[in-house]
Automatic annotation (TrEMBL):
All copies of domain Adenosine deaminase, residue ranges: 20-340
Protein name: Adenine deaminase
Source species of the chain: Polaromonas jejuensis
Classification via InterPro entries: A_deaminase_dom, ADE, Ado/ade_deaminase, Metal_Hydrolase
Cofactor binding, note field: Binds 1 zinc ion per subunit.
Reaction(s) catalysed by this chain's protein: adenine + H2O + H(+) = hypoxanthine + NH4(+)
Amino acid sequence: MRKVKPVAADRLPELLRRMPKAELHIHIEGSLEPELIFALAPRNGVKIPYASVEDLRRAYAFTNLQSFLDIYYAGASVLLKEQDFYDMARAYLLKAAQDNVVHAELFFDPQTHTARGVSMETVIHGLHRACADAQAELGISASLILCFLRHLSEEDAFETLEQALPYRDKFIGVGLDSSEVGNPPEKFARVFARCRELGLHRVAHAGEEGPPAYVWTALDLLKVERIDHGVQSGRDAALMQRLAADRIPLTVCPLSNLKLCVFPDLASHNLRQLLDAGLVATVNSDDPAYFGGYMNENFTQTFAATGLSSQHAYTLARNSFAASFIDAATRQRLIGRLDETFDTFQ
Ligand SMILES: [Zn+2]
């Protein structure tokens, strides 16, 4: 990793905001802000059990992953038409561009929508059109990763994959999300094997609340290329060595971990431990509408709480490009922009 010059603590937030970066762990349904939920609900004639934007925002006091998921699925119920999915992704991509995110890989949960009678075509077309427009209008490249809900069956995941295959050119890979504990990666070994045969990229949430054993099985049985979260890996020395040796990226989400009580406070977060062990860790926002911050908030708050340096900033941004599913030429170009930002920063 290239050595960068030290930057004073009071100038570090500006550098963190300005540096180009990729976001690799963003659930697009988790970017749905209360304001947009309240705009879409009357447009679609959907009743939501909250009186106002403030009332809904007050409900965002979570105690664990499940307490968040209950509200998350209620919020998604306002999404019915292609334009709704477009508007949601557009709103996220605008915010991402403001944070100098130059590439984003967006998770989406089709089962949350198909179970309510919304077609796969509606979901994928709306999201994909927003991604295509962002390239032309905002200068940010964006692609889609289809996530299977792990609290549902593998059979349901297979059915979802079948429904999505006619739109194979509009998503680059598959992931695994929702309630982790009790739904280990091995439950989805066959459907991930099929996705591998199809040439799809593979990622999975593992080691967020679940044990290091889930990270092992995500690697060995699902053959994933990245681990989403993975912070519990810090409890297993052999696993840490494996992740470093194989350069398996972790898409870490500090504010999410804080909100869902994975760590008691940001100062206790183990991001530094992961970086110091040579892991390809990255910073991401997960479900920013619910967890109190988009990319730059995740960076600035975590750096302020843990005392990370400009060298860590460079490493995290570079890791985000190394871990992304972009082609080699694009990766080199984006790293060049990153280097230039650090070279010219005063
Ligand atoms: Zn996530």
